[in-house]
Amino acid sequence: MDHITFLVAVVIVTALAFDFTNGFHDTANAMATSIATGALKPKTAVLISGVLNVVGAFLSTEVAKTISGGIVDDTLVTPGMIFAGLVGAILWNLLTWLVGLPSSSSHALFGGLIGAVWVGAGSHGVHFDKVVEKVLIPAVASPLVAGVAALLATYLAYKLTSRARKQSVTKGFRLGQIASASLVSLAHGTNDAQKTMGVITLTLISAGALGHDAGPPVWVIASAGLAIGLGTYLGGWRIIRTMGKGLTEIQSPQGFAAETASTTVILTSAHLGFALSTTQVASGSILGAGLGRRLAEVRWGVAGRMVVAWLVTLPAAALVGGVSAGVVKHGGNLGTAVVALVGAAVAAGIVLVSRRNPVSAHNVNDAHEVTIRSTEEPTTVGTAA
Amino acid sequence: MNLDWTALGQVAAVSLAVTVAVVTVFALGVLGLARYERAREEGAGTSTVGGAQAGLCFVACAAVVAYGIYLIVPQFH
Predict the structure, then answer these.
(1) Domain tally for chain A?
(2) Cβ contacts (< 8 Å) between B39 and chain A: which residues?
(3) 3-state SS string over A174-186?
């Protein structure tokens, strides 16, 4: 184990921390609509989702061979840059969680890496055409496809069952939601946990602790699976509230239509090798389901803020990643320690601020807004009631 | 840069078709379930047609779910 330097150890810990934020950021994708319609109790939903994420992590044998899928030149990437990129991704994930905005964890990771490589190795290390191909186009196309599919499906579901007994309809669709939400969780585990495994494995290879073309050791698979599963189980309740209640009021037929649309888009694109963000697909589906039910209210203000968050995710994470890479590059081990400490302090600060108006399993469905200010203030009293 | 527009088109077409198909079949199943439950509640015996419709539709949806699991789990390929 003499290959495990201070830097490599820090990268591994940071990668697991990112994996954890990835888990609690993305619980909402699978479970928000099931929680909002009452198909699953909040605690049960996150438990199922967490377990399926761990199962998914162990099922995925094909660990990413490249860290970024070609977005940056992998031969130029050093453990220091990976660390800086991860810090950018983690901080952006925490900030968007604080304000309850669903943003893509993969985009945060890509953004952090782009910034870190740009500063660490120069702009020639970043493949901008790949950024367009792998990030921009799917980001526009996938929520649109999922949204249109969910819209049509929702419209049909209401049309077909309009004369049937309400009670039976609600019950039937709730049961269906559980199945479709579980599929999303399983797919998430196989996709996202393996990203972290890939990062750790490639770091170990570059440090000489593993041979080239080595697969991830069992402890890497287990720790990555547990980190994402634990994150999922703790639940990003702020994001769950925005996706389940904030965008539109979801009923069980809509929830089923939205989750079916998300599942199909995720599975077909994974099968055809088309990269996309689970978060953006799920958000598109929910908006589509909101539009598909007549008279349903879609809160365009929330949707607009979410789209802005999507646009800012990559550059913002890139900025943090770039600054961190600069410090690591010139500061060596000391610089790395400083970035790690500052990052941890900012993360702790964000968690402390979130305590002023916590969202948990108990109150996730009580309001449709996520506020940062304390609930004692008059502006938020109305929504909390 | 070569964008794979074919893959994009395929994802769009397949997703749209599968989503609409699954939700339609499931809605028909729910319709059958509603008919079955109402008949039982009104004491008019049980609605065999409703029960059969629900059963068939839900089995069809379960088959799609099974195929989804098959796609997710690499060990099955």
Answers:
(1) 1
(2) none
(3) HHHHHHHHHHHHH
